[in-house]
Every structure is written in structure tokens, then in C-alpha cells.
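Worked example 3. Consider a protein that binds S-adenosylmethionine.
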Amino acid sequence: MTEEPTDRREWDGDEYQQRIDRLAATGADMHGEADLVASLAPSSVLDAGCGSGRVARELARRAIEVVGVDPDRSMIDAARRQSPELAWVVADMADVELGRTFDVVVMAGNVPLFTPAGTQAGLVAGCRRHLAHGGSLVAGFQLGRGYSVTEYDEHCTLVGLICTARWSSWSSEPFTAGSGYAVSIHRMA
Ligand SMILES: C[S@@+](CC[C@H](N)C(=O)[O-])C[C@H]1O[C@@H](n2cnc3c(N)ncnc32)[C@H](O)[C@@H]1O
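Given these inputs, the predicted complex is written out as C-alpha cells:
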């Protein structure tokens, strides 16, 4: 799902989920992110910036253990209403310490574009803290909106992660210099 990025904003989680439901009702594929993450065969996934829980919910449906983290209480309330049986945490990824790691940490839906400007390195470091040895950080975000893949790679390098794959979509279309979207996988160097 594409959402116009701004600086940190407050969300209406129910309204966000209703838009997802409306899009799903048109027959749009809502699970490209979950398909890519599931292809890595993780046992556990941290959905970092989970919003109303779209990706985490689909991964849980595929029998993958998930935890969703988002600083926006309205988003987490909406996620919890949809799936009260799953683990949802109101927290900023830059600060949170969950005390455990995950096979995959995924940031779907432009998360680095919605964290306050200048906090992307902290966001990436928070994801890295929760990555199991040999795990993968998977992220997709729009380009040309104030945060580049070069900056993202630099922030990953700072915490010992290197880019092992990059596409222009969640369905693995090739990434080129003119791509407007980047889906990246980073692993420990
Ligand atoms: C466009 S929504 C995407 C939600 C969900 N991942 C999806 O794809 O449906 C972006 C989300 O990133 C969250 N976010 C922004 N900064 C964050 C941070 N520092 N840590 C965790 N989540 C963050 C926002 O609160 C918002 O819910």
C-alpha cells in the first residue's frame, strides 16, 4: 500500500485499516510484502512500523510468529482490535528493547519516511538490535522523498548490515537508477 510520506504524524488506525479493506475489496494484491518475507522461511518476524497490522496478520495466518511494533497508539489499537491474539507493542523502533531477536525484521509501507527527520539511523539500529544472527532486515520505501537508498545503506553499514538484494517492487522487479521504489534485504556483514 502506498501512503504519502510526511514527518511524524498522528494516524487514525481504524481509518487506515478501512482504506486497506477498501483496496483489498477491489481485488488488489495486499500481500506482496508477506510473500517476500515468507519466501525467506522465517520462524519469527518483527513487523517494525506495523500500522494496523496488515503484514503481521498475514504472516501469522501463515503460521509465522509475529510481533508488531508501532509508536502510534491508534494504529496499535486498530491492530489489536483486528487480531487480539497477536503481540502488539506501542513503541518507537529507535528506542524499544524487546529483549529478544527475530529471523526477519520487516519495515513495510515507507516506515523510514514517517520517522521524524534525522532519526532514520536510530530506526535502522533498532531494527538491527532485534535481528537474530543470520537474520534479514527487509524494507520497502519510496524514493525521491527525502531519504535515499544511499543513506539507508549507510545507516545499515553503521550497524554492520550489508545489502544482499534490492528490487523496485515487492514482486522482485529489477531495481534501476530510475526506480521510484526500493525493496532491500540487508544481512549481517
Ligand atoms: C504508512 S504506515 C505503514 C504501516 C504498515 N507497515 C503497512 O504497511 O500497512 C507507516 C508506519 O510507520 C510507523 N513509524 C514511523 N516511525 C516509526 C518508528 N520510529 N518506529 C516504528 N514505527 C514507526 C508509523 O507510526 C506508521 O504506522
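Take a moment to read the result before moving on. Helices lie at 13-25, 32-39, 54-61, 73-82, 111-114, 120-129, 149-158. The domain at 13-188 is CATH 3.40.50.150 (Rossmann fold).
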